[in-house]
Amino acid sequence: MELINEDSPRRTLVNVRVGKNVRFFNFVNAYGCEIGDNTKVGSFVEIQKNARIGKNCKISSHTFVCEGVEIDDGVFIGHNVSFINDKSPRATNPDGSMQTDADWKVVPTRVGKGAVIGTGATLLCGVTVGAGAMVGAGSVVTRSVAPGAVVAGNPARPLAKKPSP
User: Fold this and answer.
1) Can you give the residue ranges of every domain in the chain?
2) How far is the C-alpha of 42 from the C-alpha of 113, rounded, in Å?
3) How far apart (Å, rounded) are the C-alpha atoms in residues 93 and 118?
4) Catalytic annotation, residues
5) pLDDT score of 165
6) For residue 109, which of 140, 63, 69 has the smallest C-alpha distance?
C-alpha cells in the first residue's frame, strides 16, 4: 500500500494508505484511513481516521465513513450512507467543557464481504452486516444483520424473500 498526502481544492487526502488502482472523485475528505486495491470513492465522501475499506469496493457519493468502521472486500455502499460510532454523542461534558477524544469511546461497526448497503441507509454503531447481506435503501440498521440476509425499514427488519440479482 502507498501512503498519500494530497491537499487540493478538489480533495484532501492526509495519511491515507491506498492500494493499487484506487479512484477518488472530487471533494473527497479522507485522513488516517486505509483503502484497498481497485476501490472507487465517489464525490463528497468523508472517510475518517482508523476506518478501513477493503478491495474492490464502491463507496458512492455523499457517504460518511467514520472512525471505527471496517468494510470488507467487494462491498457496495450506496449514496448518502451514514455510519455512526458513538452510542451517546455529546458536545460537552457535564461541567460544560467541550468534549475531546478522551471523553468518549469509538464503538466499531463492520460490513462483511460482498454486502450491499442501499442509498440513504444509516448504520448505528456496534452492528455487523454479515457477508453477502443486503440493507435496503433508507433503512436504519439498529441490530446486526445475518450473512446473506436482506433487511429493510426503520428499524431494519428481515424481508421474507431475497430479491433476484
Assistant:
1) 2-88+105-158
2) 20
3) 35
4) 62
5) 63
6) 69
Amino acid 2: pLDDT: 79
CB 41 within 8 A of CB 30: yes
Q: What CATH number labels 2-88+105-158?
A: 2.160.10.10
Rg, the chain, Cα only? 16
Cell digits of residue 117 = 448497503
State the 10-residue block means of pLDDT for the chain, 165 residues long. 78 92 95 97 97 98 98 98 94 93 92 98 98 98 97 93 61
Query: How deeply is 159 buried, as exposed, middle or buried, from its count of CB atoms within 10 A (0-12, 13-18, 19+)?
Result: middle
Q: How many CA atoms lie within 13 A of 47 on its CB side?
A: 33
- Position 101 scores a pLDDT of 86
Q: Which amino acid is at 6?
A: E
In single-letter form, the type of residue at position 90 comes to R
Residue labelled with grid coordinates 468518549 = 104
Give the pLDDT confidence score for residue 154 in this predicted structure: 97
